[in-house]
Amino acid sequence: MVQVIWMVVTVFALFTIGYLGYSRYLAQFVELDDSRETPAHKYEDGQEYVPAKKPVLLGHHYSSIAGGAPIVGPITAGVVWGWAPALAWIAIGNPLLGSVHDFVSLSSSLRHDGKSIGYIIGEYVGERGKNMLLWFAFLTIVLVVAVFALVVAIVFNAYPEAATASLVYIVLAVLFGVYLYQLNLPFLPGTAAFVIAMFVGVYAGIQFPVALFEPAARAPAETFVLFSGSGAWLPGASSFNGNTAAWVPLILVYGAIASALPVWVLLQPRDYLSSFLLYAGVGGALVAIVVGTLFTTPSQPLVTNLEPYYGFIGRSGAPLFPLLFITIACGTISGFHSLVSSGTTSKQLNKESDARVIGYGGMLGEGLLATVALATVAIIAPDVGGGIGLALPTFAAGGGVILSSFGIPTSFGGPFMALVLVSFLLTSTDTAVRLGRYMMEEIVGTPETPVEEFATNRYGNAFVQSLPAYILITSGSWLTLWQLFGGANQLLAALALLTATVWLANWDDSKQLLSTGLPMALMTTITSLGLLWLAFHDNIYAKFMNPDWLDSAGTFAMVSAVVQIVLALVLVYLALSLAKIGYGNIRDARSSGGGGSGGRPRPSDD
What we know:
Layout (H helix, E strand, L loop, with lengths): L4 H25 L9 H4 L11 H13 L2 H13 L1 H28 L6 H9 L1 H32 L1 H23 L4 H21 L2 E2 L12 E2 L16 H19 L6 H28 L25 H8 L8 H8 L10 H27 L7 H4 L1 H11 L6 H35 L5 H7 L1 H16 L4 H30 L6 H31 L2 H6 L2 H37 L15
Parallel strand pairs: 1-2
Helix pairs in contact: 1-5, 1-14, 3-11, 3-14, 3-17, 4-5, 4-14, 5-13, 5-14, 5-20, 6-7, 6-20, 7-8, 7-10, 7-17, 7-19, 7-20, 7-23, 8-9, 8-11, 8-17, 9-17, 10-17, 10-19, 11-17, 12-20, 12-21, 13-17, 14-16, 16-17, 17-19, 18-19, 20-21, 20-23, 21-23
């Protein structure tokens, strides 16, 4: 057994070196300059382009990128391959790959009027390359919406207290938005009042837990169940349970509605309040690990009960390479962050120098969240045979043990950590739907047909994303779905790094391309192999060539497997094709001596 404090010390030391050294170099490298007018000021419209105070925007950005992925990925990888490989990938990969990715995505968008990475690469490689990247991003968004909606439902089932607290939290966020942006009342007193109210909401959740159908066995006896029966008739209930299956469509509807609201109504105030859950949950857990190791006695020792390494073929039968690197996406490197950085954050950045702490520093913060998640699963050590329904609530249970170092009862600490997880997930879910609409708007341009109008309409687009997401969820194949999401996410990260490399190559031929080019090549190779494994081994071989699976699989499971195969192959094709186009542009730019100046070079004529 190893004390989990050494996990924290290792990660914190490497992250500190990265922020103080590498991020400072990158900020100088891309020439951040506060004298430049940011897109938020240049195009301020009160809807999407809205300058935000740095702590508010940091809270929004962090909550949007963190989601549940840096919690789910390390937990899933830890129980399959052991905590040591997961820790190494987080501690080394984050400052060298993920934080660089987030920072250059945000910086490049700043120099292109807050436009997405699809628009940016289109300026250099032409319309075909732009549309390929945007379609890739849109398909990835569908996977994001699917896995996050499912994870929220699983946590709501295990912790009905979090369902009630989340409802209170959403209402408070709307009221805080009105307080700040409509009534123009004082910022600091309002922050104090609403943060206190948010923690009161956790207490309300503990007192009045709510479920739709019969919840998990762990749920409190006083849980208020809205509908009688088990809900076994619902799609997906056979894989999880009726209560989980019932929450999924409601969460998708929430994401659709929330994504259509102006950012000041829910997105900005909710994400700012989420940042305090972060500080209390993640920051508190990190401090509690130190306190519980050195000074106090928590409810159980803060030591690893997972093995450090279960072998190259993990406990689920999956090979460590390449699947570890797509199982842990967020927490190390995540393409979804490039959509947030270039989709919403760049439209709200008050000044360019804020990009360093929000882009590079925000990703390091997500790595700390991933480390806490890994520590919780290492302490609790759930049975891998229990599946994700058991592994996910481990974050809340393990977090409650860690917080008991402060004398906080696990009956409060567990539901509180469940709310921390859910708050990030809800944020990422509706942010993803919003970003999906942006992607489709850029693909379509000016809608000319009823189909195009429906696809770009904020409600129609949400339906286009939510329906395939629901079909994927009902398959019940969690590990395949999560790794498919991770593979798509990592390939999108590779394409975002390709976009940044193309931008730098066209900007100035003196710009070195190794900081973005090497991570791009690494992630393209690993994740392409991972997606091909999932398509051919985990779906075609293990399912459609398996008579037992064919006999037992239902219609939803078969349709979901086909969708997963098609998605994996299409994503690999799009990524490799775009990488070839981008490489050609980089080669041509370098041979001709580079492009323009100030980070906004001459666009392509293609």
